[in-house]
Amino acid sequence: MSNTSSIVSVPFEEFKDPQTQLLNDAKQNAFDIYCACQSLILRANLGTWVERPKDKLKLPEGQVLKKPYPETPSSSDDEAPNQGFWALNDIMAFENIGVSRPIDSGVKYLCCASCDIGPLGYNDTNSTANEFLIAVDRVTYSRE
Predict the structure, then answer these.
(1) Domain 9-142's class?
(2) Of 1, 43, 104, 134, whose CB is crowded by the most CB atoms within 10 A?
(3) pLDDT at 24 over 60
(4) Where are the domains of the chain?
């Protein structure tokens, strides 16, 4: 288990130009990605920034999103049809992620396995692309 006491995690909202500041030259995450509870979700250089429909992040009627920053609006809440996600094709590349059973639409939600905050992202089992997507604005980024 890694020592997180020296980790300073920064919420997405604090990056003025996230597509420049959060990406390396290969368009992958330049920083380790953490849950708000400080659990490591994904190591640097493993996720690729993609734009995908965000409507699949919406929970079924009657379910409530457990947000780490309830006072901060998420880009998932605005009217734009797409948003940024970190995409991976292998669930085993994550350090600490939980996966729900699929709902009727075939979507599986991803959450922090330590504190159950989520959904942090999703996997659409009906998609031809086997992508595990973490919303860029629902996680924090390391600055050691």
Answers:
(1) mainly beta
(2) 134
(3) yes
(4) 9-142
